[in-house]
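W.,

You were right to be curious about this one. When I first looked at the sequence I had no strong expectations either way, so I just let the prediction run and decided to look at it fresh. Below is the sequence, 83 residues in total, followed by the output.
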Amino acid sequence: MVKVTVHVTLRQGVLDPQGKAIKDSLNSLGYAEVEDARVGKSIELMVEEGPDLEARVEEMCKKLLANPVMEDYRIEVEGAVRS
């Protein structure tokens, strides 16, 4: 088994009201150095290893895990995990 993490974020230019609320709240708490905040999600998958692993995960992202119109994604494969 391989642990695959998919990081999904809103594309640049897409409004992120949750990120703006976090930035504004941090600024009001005295963290003026925070200039921007973007909110995303991480999805961890345990996947059987195979020669087309990354292509299959890419397919999963396009079909279900990310909205290609509004979101970008990055795939991270961590290697074999032993139980």
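Here's what jumped out at me. The radius of gyration is 16 Å. And, maybe more interesting for your project: Residues 1 and 82 are 7 Å apart (CA to CA).

Coffee later to discuss?

I.
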